[in-house]
C-alpha cells in the first residue's frame, strides 16, 4: 500500500539528538525508537553520530556505541521507513558511506558549511552510485546572504543531489529570513527543498510552517525535541499541526505522541527546554551542538557560558572549531583575573 504524503518528514532524534545526550545511544534505544517511528509511518529516520559518520572523536565527543551497529540495528526493524545517514566531508569518508549503504542505509545527507558546498561533489556522487537518495545539507544557513545560499544550492544540485536543505543550525533565523531563503531556492533550483530548524528562539514550528508555505517538501523534526540545543521542530507536534492544516504526512498522530512519551522521554538526561544556553545559541547565532561543550568549559574555567557563546558568535566560529570553545573560555577567565587597565 502506498501512503499518501504531501511532504516527507525526516526524524533526526537518533542523529541530532546524539548531541543532546553526549552521543550515548545504545543499540536497544535505537531498536525501540526506530521500530516505533517506523510503525507510526515516519518515512525517513536518520541514525549517525551527531556530527555525522565518523564524528566519534576527541573533538566532537566519543560515541558509546559504534554508529555502524546503530545503523544496522535501525535497518533491522525498519520494514517501511528508510534509514538515512549524515556525512560531513572531511569527517566522514566515502568508505564510511559504502559501509552504511552495505548495512542498508538508503539516504545520504551530505552536510557542508553554507559557503562550502564545493567540498561535497565526491561524496554526493559516491552516494548516488551506491543507489542512495542524496541530500545537500547547507549548515549555518543564517550566515549567508540569500544570493550566496542560492549559489551554493545550485552547486549541490549540479553535483546530483536530489534535495537541498536550508539548515538553521543555530536556530537563529527569524520567519522572514526563512521565507526569503526558501522562496529564492524555489525560484532557482529544480530539486526538492528541505528545511531543518532548531528551537533556540522558540521559532522552530513557526519557521517550519513558513518553509512549507514557501514550498519546502522535505522537513526535519525531532521527537520530544531530542536534538542539539533546544532541539528541532518537535515531530509529534508538527504532525498534529499539519494534520489540522490538512497537510498529509502519512504519520499517525497518536502513535507519535505515545512513542514520544513512553520511549523517547525516558532517554532524555534532562527535559529539552529553552535554557539560557540554548537561548543564547539562537540569540548569538552559534552552532547548536556547542551548547553542552560551552556548559562544560564554563564550569571548568568558572565563567558564564553565555559569555563564551556570545564571543563565539562574534568570532563567527563554525562546526569543526569546537576546540575554540575552550580557548575562549580560558581567555575570558584570564581577562577576569587581570582586567585590562583603562
Ligand atoms: C553536524 C550538525 O549537527 C548538523 C545539523 O544538524 C545542523 O547543522 O543543524
Ligand atoms: Mn541540527
UniProtKB/TrEMBL annotation:
Keywords: Aromatic hydrocarbons catabolism, Lyase, Manganese, Metal-binding. It comes from the Bacteria. CDD domains: DRE_TIM_HOA. Its EC number is 4.1.3.39. It holds the Pfam family HMGL-like. The keyword Metal-binding applies. The active site is at 19 (proton acceptor). Gene3D superfamilies: 1.10.8.60, Aldolase class I. The record marks 15 as: Transition state stabilizer. It is an enzyme of class 4 (lyase). Substrate binds at residues 15-16, 169, 196, 287. GO terms for molecular function: 2-isopropylmalate synthase activity; 4-hydroxy-2-oxovalerate aldolase activity; manganese ion binding. SUPFAM superfamilies: Aldolase, post-HMGL domain-like. Signal peptide: none annotated. Belongs to the 4-hydroxy-2-oxovalerate aldolase family. This is 4-hydroxy-2-oxovalerate aldolase. It comes from Mesobacillus campisalis. The lineage of its organism: Bacteria, Bacillati, Bacillota, Bacilli, Bacillales.
Amino acid at each position: 500500500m502506498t501512503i499518501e504524503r504531501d511532504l516527507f518528514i525526516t526524524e533526526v532524534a537518533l542523529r541530532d539528538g546524539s548531541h543532546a545526550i553526549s552521543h550515548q545511544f545504545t543499540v536497544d534505544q535505537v531498536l525501540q525508537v526506530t521500530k516505533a517511528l517506523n510503525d507510526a509511518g515516519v518515512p525517513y529516520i536518520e541514525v549517525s553520530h551527531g556530527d555525522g559518520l565518523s564524528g566519534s572523536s576527541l573533538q566532537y565527543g566519543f560515541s558509546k556505541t559504534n554508529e555502524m551497529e546503530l545503523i544496522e540495528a535501525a535497518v533491522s526493524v525498519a520494514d517501511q521507513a528508510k534509514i538515512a545517514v549524515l556525512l560531513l566531508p572531511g569527517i566522514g569518508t566515502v568508505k564510511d558511506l559504502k559501509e552504511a549503504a552495505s548495512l542498508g542505509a538508503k539516504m545520504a545527507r551530505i552536510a557542508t558549511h553554507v559557503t562550502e558546498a564545493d567540498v561535497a561533489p565526491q561524496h554526493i556522487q559516491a552516494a548516488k552510485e551506491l543507489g542512495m537518495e542524496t541530500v545537500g545539507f547547507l549548515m549555518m544557513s543564517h550566515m549567508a546572504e540569500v544570493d550566496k545560499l542560492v549559489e551554493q544550492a545550485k552547486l549541490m544540485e549540479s553535483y546530483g543531489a536530489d534535495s537541498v536543505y536550508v539548515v538553521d543550525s543555530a536556530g537563529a533565523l527569524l520567519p522572514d529570513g526563512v521565507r526569503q531563503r526558501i522562496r529564492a531556492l524555489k525560484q532557482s533550483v529544480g530539486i526538492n527543498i528541505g528545511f531543518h530548524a532548531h528551537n533556540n528562539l522558540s521559532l522552530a514550528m513557526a519557521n517550519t510552517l513558513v518553509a512549507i508555505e514557501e514550498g519546502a517538501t522535505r522537513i526535519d523534526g525531532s521527537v520530544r525535541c531530542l536534538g542539539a540545543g533546544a532541539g528541532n521542530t518537535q515531530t509529534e507536534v508538527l504532525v498534529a499541526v499539519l494534520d489540522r492544516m490538512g497537510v498529509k504526512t502519512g504519520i499517525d498522530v497518536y502513535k507519535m505522541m505515545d512513542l514520544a512519551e513512553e520511549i523517547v522521554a525516558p532517554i532524555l538526561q534532562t527535559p529539552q527546554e529553552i535554557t539560557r544556553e540554548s537561548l543564547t545559541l539562537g540569540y548569538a547565532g552559534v552552532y547548536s551542538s556547542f551548547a553542552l561543550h560551552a556548559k562544560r568549559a564554563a564550569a571548568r574555567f568558572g565563567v558564564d557560558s553565555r559569555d563564551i557563546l556570545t564571543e563565539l558568535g562574534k568570532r563567527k566560529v563554525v562546526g569543526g572549531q569546537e576546540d575554540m570553545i575552550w580557548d575562549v573560555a580560558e581567555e575570558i577567565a584570564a581577562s577576569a583575573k587581570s582586567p585590562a587597565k583603562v
